[in-house]
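thought: fold this chain, then report.
action: predict
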Amino acid sequence: MKTFNTLLITASAIILMSCAQKTQNNQQVVMENPKVTVTTVNAEYVSQLQVYPTTIEADIVNNIAPQSAARISKIYVEIGDKVEAGKTLALMDEVNLEKARLQLINDSIEFGRIEQLHQIGATSQSDYEAMTLKYDVTKKTYKNLLENTILKSPISGIVTARNYDEGDMYAMAQPLFVIQKINPVKMLINISESKYSQIKKGMEVDITTDAYGDQVFKGTVDLIYPTINSMTHTFPVEVKFANKDLTLRPGMFARVTVNYGDNFRVVVPDRAVIKQVGSGEQYVYVLNEDGTVTYSVVELGRRMGDRYEVISGLDDNATVVLTGQTKLKNGITVDVVK
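observation:
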């Protein structure tokens, strides 16, 4: 009897375990679709802007120095002074100039005497020509010494360097002064050869600088170089800005923005764009009518705040996934939430 009871208990346990196993095996796990938010993208006119970093330069730079070594007698300007064309900057030692002046007076008198004799035929033609030549050389010598003794500015501008003091011996190692004309200023940018036909002289461009933040200055294309660099496939373009109030200064870092016109392109929010690590590929997920998503590689153009211009890879009026992309793969069904 005891044996029978033991067998009955064992059989019951097996039956119960079997039933439990059957119930477990029949249980179905319900998988939820990934939840995403979406938006519809549209095409619009997008300005084709290209930004070129550059450095502001003076329109003209003059290095002022005498022709030969001499002692500096007097300096009349300092760094930062505004000077007009013809302004006296410095006076060099005048000994040689005085000698040339006396020689000029003497030759002038001698020439006048020879000329009177020549008019009445009292001197030979060769003597007259020799004296004429000597007098011309003396005048040119005096003029040259005058220009190199009383140093004057050839342009209107600002004194940006003074490398000597009064009493110094100018030794021709570096210029005595540097004068820069900074109204206008110029900037040199290098543009891709693909844009050569789109750049025209007189085109208006925008100029921004670190020094003035978001303030935009209006410049123009002043010079287009006629040849293309065969190594970089770019060509130089010179941009000028009037700079009437001398706001921009040589040496400032600047950015020149050129507008190449408008293109009608699809624009997509930056949140929809996924960057493939390693390959550099960029893509979006497009929602299909059947509720599935498709992986679409896109070529992006310029960024405009929190949006990108799409050059290729996305159709107008397409619906793209904004959030929830981490759980997606090509062809998967999704649930759209608001």
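thought: worth noting. The chain has three helices and 21 strands.
final: tokens above.
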